[in-house]
Amino acid sequence: MTRISIGRLLAEATQRLDAAGIEQPGREARLLLAQALGTDMAGLIRLGREALAESDRFEALLARRCQREPMAFLLGSCGFWSLDLAVSEETLIPRADSEAVIEAVLAAIPDRSRPLRVLDFGTGTGCLLLAVLSEYPAATGFGIDLSPGAAALARRNAASNGLGERAAFLCGSWDAAIDMTADLVLSNPPYIPEADLPSLMPEVRLFEPARALDGGGDGLTAYRALVPALHRLLAPNGLAVFEFGIGQAPAIASLATEAGLDVRAVRADLGGVDRAITLGWREKA
């Protein structure tokens, strides 16, 4: 067991993270040390830079981060909307960009008391479904994912956030496991064009599941399955809200038109990039 001052640990770790190409290396060094010490950032400050700390666990975490393993995997969880969600290599790590989907839902359905029936395809950690349920206390929903590990993780996240009684999770390929209609259909499907996968940052390319990223040749394979399926999944006054990649809105709108749906809204993420599309049944003239 090696003990060294917190100040020295942070200085050396910051240099190593910077050399590994990590943005904000000082902040990440503090997060990793807090994790190693079983405290939080405030607790780390209270200890002070002169305090001694056992460095072996910190070294193990630091080595993994220098190999570009995502910080969320090292910490074991991440925040999304108002939730704290466990993460694993079975799923994508929830990102702030996806909160545009939740904002789109809130804008489209202002009545928070509605007893919505919700379906979430490619649920992953369950982040979209659980965030919606947290905002609509009378809503219930199903999350569907191809991965049994993802479905199990989402189930645990529902329980840990007090939503387990209103959410259920199933394994299946898109709508094949579902025979019901919903008031709201959600999805953040794979939408990265196959040719773009090698250029993704190492944290994504090397550690997150390719099946949740690979959208086929043009990135639209999943939408070609999901949008036509809305014909049987979507209730008469229902809505679908999908996340999508840069520049994909016109193609998804075309698929919607073919399926008898209209685009009700397109919403940007915090970076100003169009990210969520809301679809509903075509209104009669």
Describe this structure in words.
With 285 residues, the chain is of the alpha/beta class. It folds into two domains: 3-67; 82-281, 3-Layer(aba) Sandwich (Rossmann fold), CATH 3.40.50. It is built from eleven helices and eleven strands. The strands form three sheets. A seven-stranded mixed sheet has the order 7-6-5-8-9-11-10, sandwiched between helices. Strand 10 (261-268) and strand 11 (274-281) form a beta hairpin. Helix 6 packs parallel to helix 7 (127-135). The radius of gyration is 21 Å and the shape is elongated. The N and C termini lie far apart (75 Å). The model has no long low-confidence stretch (mean pLDDT 94). Methylates the class 1 translation termination release factors RF1/PrfA and RF2/PrfB on the glutamine residue of the universally conserved GGQ motif. Keywords: Methyltransferase, S-adenosyl-L-methionine, Transferase.
